[in-house]
Design a protein that fits this description.
112 residues; Helix Hairpins; 2 domains; elongated
Length: 112
């Protein structure tokens, strides 16, 4: 993911008023809450900019949902083992998703 995509995700997070770490349930909950507040047909919104704000909220929600659905990892143990990973080893899990540790490279630190 490049810097522009990360900036778009950060902006979407701010539009939906999410913390730095959020679950899918929190993303959906904030989207629904803000949609009720800013929807042009809602009785309390009535302001002229509510349509534009609703557009930003929907675009932010769609971007975050697209990001969350594209993040995939093996769900079956056999698939993980075929890829050379031990699904129960936290270091293998980390390296499969975020790459090797810049200090250690591909080798794992020795445990004592």
């Amino acid at each position: 993911m490049n810097a522009g995509e990360w900036q778009a995700i950060e902006l979407a997070r701010e539009v939906l008023r999410l913390p730095e770490r959020a679950s899918l349930a929190e993303i959906k909950r904030n989207y629904r809450r803000l949609s009720k507040q800013y929807h042009p047909d809602a009785a309390e919104s009535g302001s002229a900019g509510s349509g534009e704000q609703m557009y930003r909220i929907t675009a932010a929600y769609e971007l975050l949902m697209r990001y969350c659905t594209e993040y995939r990892f093996p769900l079956k143990r056999e698939e993980a083992e075929d890829a050379g990973l031990d699904p129960y080893d936290p270091e293998d899990w980390w390296q499969a998703r975020f790459g090797p540790n810049p200090l250690w490279g591909n080798r794992k630190p020795k445990r004592r």
